[in-house]
Amino acid sequence: MAPTARPRESGSVAAAITRQPFLPDEEHPWVHQQRAQLQRLWRRALLVLSAVSRRNGEHELGIQHAADALSAEPFDEVACQALMRAHAAAGNRAEALRVFANCRKLFRDELGAEPSEQTAALFLGILRAD
Hints:
Helices cover 76% and strands 0% of the residues. It is mostly helical.
């Protein structure tokens, strides 16, 4: 089995399972908690799939997985970083930098805060890349 086959396989299975509706007709606090947990696991699976796709040179797939994760939770900096990396790996620095600009604007407007040092460092690394 190829080195990236297991993570891709595991990520794909996790993404498929966690996207299934969980007790769709029930509205109890514990059901909502479980749905939130499944949503977090789904986003994590997408980030694994994005990283594997990026390493395999499947840039558009890596971008799509990271974009889906970020769309589901716009304040997730790990998803923002993954999308920045995916665009940069695809050779689209401008789009990677735009992702950071959107993240920074969202954080400033909604939270009165800045993205983390890790996200800013990634931005600077992409900005300075030749």
